[in-house]
Amino acid sequence: MRHLSCWATVALQLLYHVGPATAAAVPGHRNHIGGNTGRIAPRVFIISMFTPESEAWKTSMVESGTGNLTDTKIDVPGLSMLYPQVLCTADKSVCQVTAGESEINAAASTMALVLSDKFDLSQTYFVVGGIAGVNPKYSTLGGVALSRYVIQVALQYELDAREKPDNFSTGYFGYGTKGPNEYPTTSYGTEVFEVNDALRNAAYGFAQKAKLADSAAAAEYRAKYREAGLEYVAATEGPSVVKCDTATSDVYYSGTLLSEAFETVSKVWTNGTGKYCMSAQEDNAVLEVLVRGAIQGLVDFGRVVVMRTGSDFDRPPPNITAYQHLMADQNGFATACANLGKAGVEIVRGILQGWERTFQKGIKPTNYIGDIFGSLGGQPDFGPGSQTNGTGYAAAPVQARAQMRTRGFRGASVVRRRI
Ligand SMILES: *[C@@H]1O[C@H](CO)[C@@H](O)[C@H](O)[C@H]1NC(C)=O
Ligand SMILES: *[C@@H]1O[C@H](CO)[C@@H](O)[C@H](O)[C@H]1NC(C)=O
Ligand SMILES: *[C@@H]1O[C@H](CO)[C@@H](O)[C@H](O)[C@H]1NC(C)=O
Ligand SMILES: *[C@@H]1O[C@H](CO)[C@@H](O)[C@H](O)[C@H]1NC(C)=O
Ligand SMILES: *[C@@H]1O[C@H](CO)[C@@H](O)[C@H](O)[C@H]1NC(C)=O
């Protein structure tokens, strides 16, 4: 997430955690794969990052009659100390975890969830997302984006721009390279993830049914982009649902030069396909965990939706400095939170309503899905190519899987995708 009103967040978090920590594991109400394992098998799992986002989801869930996420509270060891419980509707078809902000919290919490023996997540759809910095070329304050690629844009060398060679466009350049905008020659594995585009298209159809919120105050800041002409016309319009990609960075960057640098990196690292429009602090972390879970057959990486809503522009309008822009209240925060819930709940409803017909069996991806290593099999359409000759990485050896099973996990299975 990206936001400036930290004091409000802290206040909300305190309020939220004052209540008694009543929690008990509740037996699973169904299991779509085999015998009853006693584990909860949600059809949709919402992954939020902090309180204002999770509250917006709760509000939209209740308002739309989709369920009350505070009906069931489940302690899960290893979640954030700020958000130690998973919340679910009474029938446990929809659950929500609040991971905590930025990459470390997001990875740690998501891993705790994926390895928890309280859930069977093998058929679960994950709706990952939160509020974001927004690129004025493609969307606006309160705008909703559904992504196919997420790119860890700051995983690079960095020279302070005051010390960079004069002919560098930015102080950032990829590992193993000699300058900006070359493809990195060393991969950590988390640089780029690609999710199921056919599912994204279905989610886009659902999200478009939402009546999105807007505010006069947000419109006022948007109007400042008019002077920039056609390039930023999307910034000046009211919120809508768009398809474009998400950049992850722990650093909350702001300004035209950094935003353009990361926009270019997003394009280069996706071999020209990625179109950066939202900046987040968590998404690559969450998706790395889901890839690892998919290798073990614990989750299906073909069932991941990445959604972000614009709370603040990543770069200023004309005649405003980067610093003034960062310090200004752009008045997009409340609208972004509201639209996360409003658009998100339509995706949840679409999946629930189409469960038997479509979603239980899954939407077959037509694009490559997974990471830059090719961990789930297939040939990535970006990066240096599969590290496994297209076969994907194997699940843990039989002995380790047996240990997992004694703790209640299903063994690795067919949910890994081979395209
Ligand atoms: C949701 O459930 C909680 C706990 O059961 C309850 O306190 C709250 O009033 C419910 N909210 C709505 C809007 O029904
Ligand atoms: C910058 O200039 C140096 C020296 O002329 C050259 O070797 C290098 O390729 C240039 N780098 C970029 C990013 O243009
Ligand atoms: C903003 O700057 C541009 C030139 O960059 C200038 O033409 C325009 O008049 C300025 N607008 C205001 C409101 O200062
Ligand atoms: C992506 O671009 C890099 C750099 O040009 C190239 O080495 C690599 O083969 C490309 N990957 C794919 C899948 O096209
Ligand atoms: C991939 O194929 C190459 C050439 O056939 C082989 O040398 C390499 O060991 C293979 N790697 C894996 C992980 O199977």
Automatic annotation (TrEMBL):
Annotated Gene Ontology cellular component terms: endoplasmic reticulum
Alphabetized UniProt keyword annotations: Signal
InterPro entries on file: Nucleoside_phosphorylase_sf (IPR035994), Pur_nuclsid_perm (IPR009486)
A molecular function GO annotation: catalytic activity
Domain of life: Eukaryota
GO biological-process terms attached to the record: nucleoside metabolic process; transmembrane transport
Annotated signal sequence range: 1-23
PANTHER family on file: PURINE NUCLEOSIDE PERMEASE C285.05-RELATED
Protein name: Purine nucleoside permease-domain-containing protein
Species for this entry: Neurospora tetraspora
